[in-house]
Structures are given as C-alpha cells and as structure tokens.
Design a protein that fits this description.
A hairpin with a 5-residue loop joins strand 9 and strand 10 (about 185). The chain is α/β, with parallel strands linked by helices. The protein is built from six helices and ten strands, in the order αββαβαβααβαβββββ. Strands 1-2-3-4-5 form a five-stranded mixed sheet, with helices on both faces. The protein has a three-stranded antiparallel sheet with strand order 8-9-10, with no helix packed on it. Strands 6-7 form a two-stranded antiparallel sheet. About 30% of the residues lie in helices and about 30% in strands. It folds into two domains: about 5-140, STAS domain (Transcription Regulator spoIIAA, 2-Layer Sandwich); about 150-185, no CATH class. It is elongated, with a radius of gyration of 19 Å.
C-alpha cells in the first residue's frame, strides 16, 4: 500500500534533501510503500536521455545509499528513453541487488517497452503491469515471480511446463525454444 496521497508529503518529507537537485527534462515524485520495508515508488515524468540520465542515476543512488533498496519505478509519465537510460537502469538494478534489494518497473508506455524488448531488458528487469503487482512481488520476494505456463512443443507436440520466462530446450526433440511472459512459445534458431 502506498502512503496516503492526501497527506501531501513532498519528496523532502520522505527523503530529506532529495529535491536539492532538479532537472528540466525529468521529474521524480517519491511515494513510500507502507507495507514493504525499505521500499519507495518513484513516479517519473519526462524523458530519460543523455541530459537527464545522470540526474536519474544520482537520484536513485541517493535513495539506495539511504537504505531504500526496494524500488518501484512508475514509468507512465516517461515518453522517451535513450541508450544512456538503458545503462542507468542496468546500473540501478546492480546497485539495488548489491544491497539485497530489487527493482520493479510498472506502467511502461508502449514506446518504452519496445526499447526494453529490443534490448531484452524485459528479461533482465522485473516489468509488471500494475503497482499492486509490484508491491506484491516486493512483499513476498522478487525471486518468486508468479509464472507457470503449460504449453505444447511446436516441434514434437510434447506437453511441457515452463516455470520462468526465457530460453530452453524441449527434452523430447531438443528443439531450441523461447517463452515470453505472455506465454508465447517460439522455436528459435540455434
């Protein structure tokens, strides 16, 4: 559960000194996640590009250094990400993981998700559909992603179960397969 928005807490109320630095291209609004220890939601608005990416990384580094290592990034207000932003997301995940935390990303606009998919970041980062789903994952531990998909091997028709998104081989015919979070199974070139 997020902190009550009616309480009108500012970023500096949640994290003193957070708003000392600003950026013309990106704004970040903090919101505490009450039910999860060391967890913040960061609502982003604008662009994460060459000019705003360093600000974005410094802002996230501030909160992780202060012990907020479970972060939920809400990207509904982000209309553009550059290759520099991709590096920022990778560094953020590493920094949070190094401190025993994790990052979930929600409300990803289609243009941004396309970039994530093209670079396979959707496999590296926890990209979920809703804030409630991200909070649930943070509450019970990110390693227990709720995924179990029954499917038929497109090559030999054997019934299989995938417990995670990714690439694997059919044990019957040894076909190289991949499965997406949506449960789409494809033969892949080896």
């Amino acid at each position: 559960m997020l902190s009550d928005p009616k309480a009108a807490m500012g970023n500096n109320d949640i994290f003193p000194g957070f708003d000392e630095e600003a950026n013309d291209f990106l704004t970040i609004q903090l919101q505490k996640v009450e039910d999860v220890d060391s967890c913040l939601a960061l609502k982003l608005k604008g662009q994460i590009d060459t000019y705003s990416s360093p600000f974005f990384q410094r802002s996230v580094n501030k909160v992780t250094a202060a012990g907020f290592v479970r972060l939920i990034l809400v990207l509904s207000g982000v209309d553009y990400v550059s290759s520099k932003a991709v590096g920022a997301f990778v560094q953020m995940k590493k920094a949070a993981n190094d401190k025993g935390g994790e990052i979930a990303i929600v409300d990803i606009p289609p243009k941004v998700m396309e970039v994530f998919k093209n670079l396979s970041l959707d496999r590296f980062l926890y990209c979920v559909d809703s804030l409630d789903e991200a909070i649930e994952l943070m509450t019970r531990g990110m390693k227990a992603l709720p995924f179990s998909e029954l499917f038929e091997c497109p090559n030999c028709k054997r019934k299989l179960r995938a417990l995670k998104v990714g690439r694997f081989r059919c044990p019957e015919c040894m076909a190289a397969l991949s499965i997406t979070e949506a449960g789409v199974v494809r033969l892949r070139d080896t």
